[in-house]
Amino acid sequence: MSDELNQPQTMYGEHVEAVAEKLPCFYVVAPKKFAVLFFTTFGFYSLYWFYKNWSNYKLWTNENIKPIARAALSAFFAYNLFNKINKTLVSRNITYRWNHMLLGIRYAEFWFAAIAAEFYIYVLKPELFGYLLFPSLLTYFPLARAQKAINMACGQGAGEGNAKLSDVNMIWILLGVPVWAFSLFGIYATWAGLLVK
User: Fold this and answer.
1) Range of the domain at 160
2) Cα–Cα distance for residue pair 160/164, rounded to 1 Å
3) Residue 100 contacts residue 85 (beta carbons within 8 Å)
4) Number of C-beta neighbours around residue 157 at 10 A
5) Spatial separation of the C-alpha atoms in residues 17 and 5, rounded to whole Å
6) How far is CA 100 from CA 67, 95, 103, 127, 154, in A?
7) What pLDDT does 8 receive?
8) 40 with 177: CB under 8 angstroms?
9) Of 20, 34, 58, 124, which residue is most buried, by most CB within 10 angstroms?
10) What is the total count of domains within the chain?
11) How far apart (Å, rounded) are the C-alpha atoms in residues 159 and 139?
């Protein structure tokens, strides 16, 4: 098996080893930090997560990919990303028990199910607006498993290289607080009969 992810490739005619030594081939995040950012942003953090993974991978391999597009269309590229993560584990002789193929499929299923549920609420059941963003939280489960695999592949099983919340992370969390408050109020209003159907 090619060890393309064991050594950084060239980019724009220059060797990127000096950069890659400081940058893992995928996006390392501590599990607790990943969970906090994912849930406080109602899953929107996953867009950034996919972008960073594809961006790091592109830097290491110099593949002709577009990280932003693959992040935006994550349901179509999650399987591919998980497969590349698994190949990295195998090439580095790292044992991690996970079904990357099934998890890639599960992510896509959860992603499409969330879109359908949110469309249903928004268009047909607006009185349930408090639940609008909750379906997307299902995608956490396959992503959390993938994050553990990434950390193992990059030699940081606990994600110690990216465990602390940055100032930018805190801004994301603060922006998520009113969204959570609005959603919880919507749920309360629904159950209390404050909303007219």
Assistant:
1) 26-46+76-191
2) 8
3) yes
4) 14
5) 12
6) 20, 13, 5, 38, 17
7) 47
8) yes
9) 34
10) 1
11) 20
Phi, psi of 5 (to 5 degrees): -95, 0
Residue 9 lies in a domain: no
The one-letter amino acid at 138: L
CA-derived radius of gyration, the chain: 19
In a domain, 144, yes or no: yes
pLDDT tens digits, the chain, 197 residues: what are they? 444 454 444 433 344 444 445 678 999 999 999 999 999 998 899 999 999 999 999 998 889 999 999 999 999 999 999 999 999 999 999 999 999 999 999 999 999 988 888 777 777 776 666 566 677 888 999 999 999 999 999 999 899 989 999 999 999 999 888 888 877 777 777 767 665 55
Q: Read out DSSP for the chain?
A: ---TTTS--EETTEE-HHHHTTS-SS----HHHHHHHHHHTTTTHHHHHHHHHHHHHHHHH-----HHHHHHTHHHHHHHHHHHHHHHHHHTT------HHHHHHHHHHHHHHHHHHHHHHHHT-GGGGGGTTGGGGGGHHHHHHHHHHHHHHTT-TT-GGG-SPPHHHHHHHHHHHHHHHHHHHHHHHHHTT-S--
Lookup: tokens for 8: 């950084």
